[in-house]
């Protein structure tokens, strides 16, 4: 009985949709303005430069950046590092730099050194070590060869 009722409701819903004609034109679907790269960078830089930003908001923005198919520009990274420093969250700076390195993928030897070169003055100013300097680039208990076991 319940199954018959559910089928009848579903059938009525599909008939209503086909009668209304939900085929929307492309102009109705494209009301969202496409953001340029400069606007995107300025938005995230301004977000990280807010004086009242808290730890949750920083983590949320960093997570959003990690979920996107991009590597953040050095000016965004610098703003994020300053935001972490204002909150005195050193661990988050390390995790953010690790995330950026992972996002470089197969071109890590080309992109990551460039990024470090661009943010090096900020790292030195804030006293932040890179994950490589902290030894996080290799496993703590990893063995180089089988004979070392």
From TrEMBL:
Q: In which pathway does it act?
A: Energy metabolism; oxidative phosphorylation
Q: How does it sit in the membrane?
A: Peripheral membrane protein
Q: What is the lineage of its organism?
A: Eukaryota, Metazoa, Ecdysozoa, Arthropoda, Crustacea
Compartment(s) where it occurs, according to its Swiss-Prot or TrEMBL record? Mitochondrion inner membrane
Q: Which GO terms describe its biological process?
A: mitochondrial electron transport, cytochrome c to oxygen
Lineage top rank: taxon: Eukaryota
Stated role: Component of the cytochrome c oxidase, the last enzyme in the mitochondrial electron transport chain which drives oxidative phosphorylation. The respiratory chain contains 3 multisubunit complexes succinate dehydrogenase (complex II, CII), ubiquinol-cytochrome c oxidoreductase (cytochrome b-c1 complex, complex III, CIII) and cytochrome c oxidase (complex IV, CIV), that cooperate to transfer electrons derived from NADH and succinate to molecular oxygen, creating an electrochemical gradient over the inner membrane that drives transmembrane transport and the ATP synthase.
Keywords tagged on the record: Heme, Iron, Membrane, Metal-binding, Mitochondrion, Mitochondrion inner membrane, Phosphoprotein, Transit peptide, Ubl conjugation
Q: Which family does it belong to?
A: Belongs to the cytochrome c oxidase subunit 5A family.
> What is a GO molecular function of this protein?
metal ion binding
Q: CDD domains annotated for this entry?
A: Cyt_c_Oxidase_Va
Per its record, how is this protein called by name? Cytochrome c oxidase subunit 5A, mitochondrial
Q: Which organism is it from?
A: Artemia franciscana (Brine shrimp)
